[in-house]
């Protein structure tokens, strides 16, 4: 519990990489399928989510998936555009596509496909604690 008895939500932008790191993995056919998508086209974003992001997200343990989701919500609500643009660079992710110029809209569009009807906006940022440090083991959601 944090200040005023509110539950503290721990976030870390490096946990977002667990979702996007998988986009650079796999066989050549999968990489080509992703590379052929137009990341500003809603139907392409839907395909990216349905065929590549959602399956990985749903495979994650519930606690890990919740941490990724809240880190995503926090990134959209609290990080400036420059930080969002740099997210894939911090851990040297090799995405099979170029991020769109408006990366915030891209991440919002993915959020809306992943969590339809669920707002990404945070009303009370004070309940979030950002441990935005490089993790010794980014796949360890306990850190």
Order the strands across the largest sheet as they lie in space. 1-2
Given as residue ranges, the uncertain stretches (5+ residues, pLDDT < 50) are none
Determine the N-to-C terminus distance.
17 Å
In N-to-C order, the SSE pattern is EHHHHHHE
Strand content: under 5%
Estimate the global geometry from the Cα principal axes.
globular
How many helices in DSSP terms? 6
Structural class: mainly alpha
- The average pLDDT value, as a whole number, equals 82
Count the E strands.
2
Rounded to an integer, what's the Rg over CA atoms? 15 Å
Main sheet attributes: strand count, strand direction, barrel closure: 2 strands, parallel
Helix content: 40-55%
What does this structure look like?
With 143 residues, the chain is mostly helical. The protein contains six helices and two strands, in the order E-H-H-H-H-H-H-E. It has helices at residues 13-21, 28-35, 42-59, 62-78, 81-90, 103-114, and strands spanning 9-11, 128-130. A two-stranded parallel ribbon has the order 1-2. Helix 1 (13-21) packs across helix 4 (62-78) and helix 3 (42-59) packs across helix 6.
